[in-house]
Amino acid sequence: MARQCCTIVFPAALVLLLLGSADAQLEVGFYRKSCPNAEAIVRAEISRVMTVAPTLGGPLLRFFFHDCFVRGCDASILLNATDSSNPAEKDAIPNSFLRGYKVIDTIKANLEKACPSTVSCADVLALIARDVVSLAKGPYWEVPTGRRDGRVSIMSEALNMLPGFTANISSLKSQFAAQGLSVKDLVVLSGAHTLGNAHCFTVTNRIYNFSGRGDNTDTDPALDKRYVPKLRGKCSPLPADAIKLIEMDPGSFLSFDNSYFTLVSKRRGLFESDAVLLDDSETRAYVLRQANAPPTEFFEDFGVSMVNMGNIGVLTGSQGEIRKQCALRN
Ligand code: HEM
Q1: How many angstroms separate the alpha carbon of residue 208 from the centre of ligand 1?
Q2: d(CA 301, CA 98)
Q3: Which residue range or ranges hold the Plant heme peroxidase family profile domain (predicted)?
Q4: What is the 256 CA–ligand 1 centroid distance (Å)?
Q5: Ligand 1, residues 186, 193, 274: which to mutate, most atoms within 8 A of Cβ?
Q6: Which residue puts its alpha carbon closest to atom 12 of ligand 1?
Q7: What is the DSSP letter of 106?
Q8: Buried b (16+ CB within 10 A) or exposed e, 44-62
Q9: For residue 116, what are the CA distances in angstroms to 42, 112, 158, 318?
């Protein structure tokens, strides 16, 4: 009996151990000995940037999401195409408006000066995301590091893996689940839309031509009718203002707070992918709870979910490489 019991229990324990070790590959303070100033070097530059060009905070945070969702958090988003017949992730439309590549290059150059070939570009993106959020008055969390950089970057993968701004709740849930992220991670991480700007083309259909009729009443029923004139005041019909920028969280788009949830709860989230968080009981309950609460719970959850996202498909140990320049394979 006892032997039978253990042949069943032991493999299960082994599986748990293996799963545990997959998570444990990253480590807080991974560069403690090899590059003790690594995190301080990143933070110093992000502090400077957030003072002189605070609107770069949004795209710099978004880089981490767009990196992790395509081939894992391996800085594949930063690689240049090898030639024009093999476009890279950065050439995909959803990535075309990312800004801040120079900031990343400056940080990487400073790191190379201090500790050559030691700190990965993938970790740089993870640390930048944390520093942007905390310097924008949001939460601070410890970032597990030890990621290595990938050598492959393919445009079509970015097109397939990144959720679209017209996504419905079931696609969002399944795209997050495919990355090992929960429904809670989805709603918590969407709270990043408290920071930054979007282009008018992401909302024009919702305010002018939702069902294709294009008359004055053809607006998205999921959008607060009283909010439509405000948005129309900012964005004219296509193509006039297609690439004009609007604040996603008007009034506090440079500070990380929980007002995103207040907006979504009032049916004033900018994208359809924000509005649909009211369509699922779990995401809806979270939105409504955060809408009227101090940001304590959201701040704590955000750090946890960012660490979860930062675990997606990481390369560690002898996998990949430590790039010398983030745009180029060694
Ligand atoms: C849930 C699925 C998501 C969708 C469909 C989505 C979509 C978008 C879109 C369409 C924009 C506007 C881009 C532009 O017009 O330039 C945007 C901006 C942004 N997103 Fe998301 N996003 C999602 C999740 C996330 C996550 C998980 C994060 C980070 C944790 C994030 C962070 C940001 C930030 C910071 C901006 C502002 C960028 C800037 O200021 O340039 N998003 N997102």
Answers
A1: 22
A2: 25
A3: 25-330
A4: 14
A5: 193
A6: 198
A7: H
A8: ebbeebbeeebbbbbbbbb
A9: 15, 4, 30, 17
Q: Which residues pair with 197 in a beta bridge?
A: 247
Nearest atom, ligand 1, residue 195 CA: 35
Token representation of residue 215:
């008359």
What's the CATH architecture for 27-162?
Answer: Orthogonal Bundle (1.10)
Residues belonging to the active site = 66
Take residue 37 and report the two structure tokens written for it.
């100033």
Residue 283, both tokens: 């995401």
Q: Is 162 within 8 Å of 90 (Cβ atoms)? A: no
pLDDT tens digits for range 103-144: 999 999 999 999 999 999 999 999 999 999 999 999 999 999
Q: Measured between alpha carbons, how far apart are the two ends of the chain, in Å? A: 57
The domain segmentation of the chain, as residue ranges, is: 27-162, 169-306
Q: Atom 32 of ligand 1 has which residue's CA nearest to it?
A: 62
Q: Who's near 299: CB < 8 A, 6+ residues apart?
A: 138, 139, 258
| pTM for this prediction | 0.93
| 199 annotated ligand binder | no
pLDDT tens-place string over residues 195-244? 999 999 999 999 999 999 989 899 999 999 999 999 999 999 989 999 99
163: annotated binding-site residue?
yes
